[in-house]
Amino acid sequence: MTNPNEEDFVAWIASEHDIHASYDVNDGRTFTQTIDGEEKTLHYKGKHIGHIGIFLTYSYRFADTEEKEIQIEAIGIMNMLFDR
Fold first, then answer.
1. Cβ distance 40 to 65 under 8 Å?
2. How many CA atoms lie within 13 A of 79 on its CB side?
3. pTM for the whole structure
4. Which residues contact 51 (CB under 8 A, 6 or more apart)?
5. 44: Cβ–Cβ under 8 A, 6 or more apart, which residues?
6. What is the C-alpha to C-alpha distance for residues 83 and 13, in angstroms, rounded to an integer?
């Protein structure tokens, strides 16, 4: 069994935090979050992926239009992701 990869993490963010990624040739990867039926564009600030023995850690940082920072972190092991 393997650890989840980054695409698995992006899918997990969509299912757990309602943050969806899309890709455009001109803009690259963009992220949106839906809260109370309203879709907001998130500005991608950075990421960190740590390979620590038998598990991985993932962290993505975003900022909304009001520059409020959103950080999503997870631990990946045995093809599963858990909130950190």
1. yes
2. 2
3. 0.86
4. none
5. 29, 30, 31, 60, 61, 62
6. 10
- For the chain, 84 residues long, give each residue's pLDDT as a single digit of tens: 588 999 999 999 999 999 999 988 877 888 999 888 889 999 999 999 999 888 999 999 999 888 899 999 999 999 899 998
What is the 3 state secondary structure string of the chain?
Answer: CCCCCHHHHHHHHHHHHCEEEEEECCCEEEEEEEECCEEEEEEEEEEEEEEECCEEEEEEEEECCCCCEEEEEEEEECCEEEEC
75, 81 Cβ separation under 8 angstroms: yes
